Amino acid sequence: MDSLIKLLFCFSVFLLFGEINGVEGSDKNQRMYGFRPTKLFVFGDSYADTGNIKKSLSSSWKFPYGITFPGKPAGRFSDGRVSTDFLAKFVGIKSPIPYFWKDYAGKKRLQYGMNFAYGGTGVFNTQVPLPNMTTQIDFFQNILTAGDIYASSDFSSSVALVSVAGNDYSTFIAQNRPNSEFPAFIKQVVDQTEVNLRRIHALGVKKIAVPLLQPLGCLPGITVASSFQRCNESQNALVQLHNSLLQQAVAKLNNETKQSTFIIIDLYNAFLTVFKNKGANPGSTTFQSPLKPCCVGVSSEYFCGSVDEKGVKKYVICDNPKSAFFWDESHPTEEGWRSVYSVLRESLTASFIKA
Fold first, then answer.
1. Helix 182-202 / helix 233-257 crossing angle, nearest 10 deg
2. Is 328 a catalytic residue?
3. Is 321 exposed, middle or buried (0-12, 13-18, 19+ CB in 10 A)?
4. Of 147 and 318, which is predicted with more confidence?
5. Catalytic member of 60, 78, 242, 331
6. Rounded mean pLDDT of 131-147?
7. What dotted CATH number matches 3-286+342-353?
8. DSSP3 helix / strand / coil % (the chain, rounded to 5)
9. Which among 221, 211, 213 has a CA at the least distance from the CA of 168?
10. Residue 4 has pLDDT above 80, yes or no
11. Strand, helix or coil for residue 124
């Protein structure tokens, strides 16, 4: 790549990620008195990915993704900001640069941490060649070992987000494995998550935020069977088993560290609270049809962002993404995430104040 092309490429990266993350600026009013984070490190999947997954592998780089923010597709699985962005804003720092773009970001932009999450990934292998969470932590450890970006002293004020949003379970179902094996597999997922949490903590991260699994039975890909009217309670029962085991694992880890190192983010009840909201919760949008997605394919073989061989779009979008909780069949809109974090604000504040 000659110098001119490289300069233009770096400039385009600045426009893409400098603009995105700059908008999220440091809000000192969000910082907690007991703990003032300066860096956020992110591991996980599409609920947390802000641009790692390659354009050739994902619809998140296709229109209409990103139409609310930053106004064009940017690798986020939403019309705008995702969970990572809202957690970063909550703790008062800029959303961290995606790992894939680290070589073009400049050291100043890397001071806020780094995002290793890849859409479509899981605790175990889900989509080859995407890196599962163990590999993502390997990337993190390699950067720490190199020592040219972060020093050990940087981690006394660091936070990690470890997102598991269900890809392991959708892969389990796609493999047509017997339902009788599901509970044992859930335990395997949680046990490996515990291993991952221990490893991230051992690498020096001060606080680790661990979301509970959202109600998978309420995702539009499932509720389409009821014309987006009802959640699948059988699937939600399995989610509750996952969440119960995960809470037990986190409680054990906190007992071992003798500190409130690991923080539960209760996405399950936050999602349900928003679904049931009738305007009683300040700052939370009332969604008239919360289980119905904004962007859908025109038929079952198409999805949000699909076009045919002539480039004709094969999807439809709702009139106003702010009126919808879900963007596509699996992911919230920016307004959906904003409402979820509005519900979570009080519990997150209490968790971050603890030493």
1. 30
2. yes
3. buried
4. 318
5. 331
6. 95
7. 3.40.50.1110
8. 50, 10, 40
9. 213
10. no
11. coil
Please identify which residue in the block is written with the tokens 């936050």: 270
Instruction: Say if residues 222 and 163 touch (Cβ distance below 8 Å).
Output: no
Checking if the pLDDT of 49 tops 70, the result is yes
Query: What whole-number distance in Å separates Cα of residue 162 and Cα of residue 136?
Result: 11
The residue assigned the tokens 């979301």 is 211
What angle do helix axes 334-353 and 267-276 make, rounded to 10 degrees?
A: 130
- Greatest Cα pair distance, the chain, in angstroms, is 60
User: Looking at the chain, which runs of residues are DSSP E strands?
Assistant: 39-43, 97-98, 113-115, 158-162, 207-211, 262-265, 295-297, 315-317
Residues 330, 46 contacting (CB under 8 angstroms): yes
Which of 162, 275, 288 lies closest to 215 in space, CA to CA? 275
Tell the residue number behind the tokens 């605790």, with chain if given: 123
Give the SS3 label for residue 333: coil
Catalytic residue among 46, 58, 78, 284: 46
Tell me the domain boundaries of the chain.
3-286+342-353
Q: Tokens for 172? A: 């389990």
β-pairing, 295-297 vs 113-115, is: unpaired
Q: Would you say residue 224 has pLDDT above 50? A: yes
Q: Alpha-carbon distance 58 to 14, whole Å?
A: 22
* Residue 206 burial (C-beta neighbours within 10 Å; 0-12, 13-18, 19+): middle
Total residues belonging to the chain:
355
For the question of residue 242 being annotated catalytic, the response is no
Q: Which two tokens stand for residue 269?
A: 């009840």
Residue 91 pLDDT greater than 70, yes or no:
yes
The Cα-based distances of 316 to 95, 116, 228 in angstroms read: 30, 31, 16
| Catalytic hit among 49, 79, 85, 328 | 328
Q: Residue 293 pairs with which residues in a beta bridge?
A: 326
Taking the whole predicted model, whether its pTM rises above 0.85 is answered as yes
